[in-house]
């Protein structure tokens, strides 16, 4: 897949949630979103005031907290300049409808929209 080229002044490349930007799923099903982030080779965090959190997932602009909804899992892996993060929602609810954003440290964020529809 071709990545969105959201370039910042320092040359970092932004995030990309793989797949369509509009997702429609049935209530009760599971959903996994995969975000890929590529940063500039040799990107250094030594001048920052805190160590970077690799990826935050947001729902309608708010960081997703595991304590607010059961069935949420995030797996994030770093390999050199590449970061991959999987957000899994088990048993999707109507309240899960909205915008999901993958926001990586020092890289442009990206979003998709999720529509949850009632089951059969």
UniProtKB/TrEMBL annotation:
It comes from the Eukaryota. InterPro entries: Ig-like_dom, Ig-like_dom_sf, Ig-like_fold, Ig_sub, Ig_sub2, Zig-8. GO terms for biological process: synapse organization. SUPFAM superfamilies: Immunoglobulin. SMART domains: IG (SM00409), IGc2 (SM00408). GO terms for cellular component: neuron projection membrane. CDD domains: Ig. Coiled coil: none annotated. Gene3D superfamilies: Immunoglobulins (2.60.40.10). This is Uncharacterized protein. It comes from Rhodnius prolixus (Triatomid bug). The lineage of its organism: Eukaryota, Metazoa, Ecdysozoa, Arthropoda, Hexapoda.
């Amino acid at each position: 897949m071709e990545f969105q080229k959201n370039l910042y002044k320092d040359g970092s490349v932004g995030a990309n949630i793989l797949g369509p930007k509009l997702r429609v799923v049935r209530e009760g099903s599971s959903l996994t979103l995969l975000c890929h982030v590529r940063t500039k080779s040799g990107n250094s965090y030594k001048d920052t005031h805190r160590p970077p959190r690799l990826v935050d997932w947001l729902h309608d602009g708010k960081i997703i907290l595991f304590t607010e909804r059961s069935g949420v899992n995030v797996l994030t892996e770093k390999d050199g300049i590449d970061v991959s993060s999987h957000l899994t929602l088990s048993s999707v609810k109507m309240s899960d409808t909205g915008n999901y954003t993958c926001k990586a440290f020092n890289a442009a964020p990206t979003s998709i929209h999720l529509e949850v529809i009632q089951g059969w």
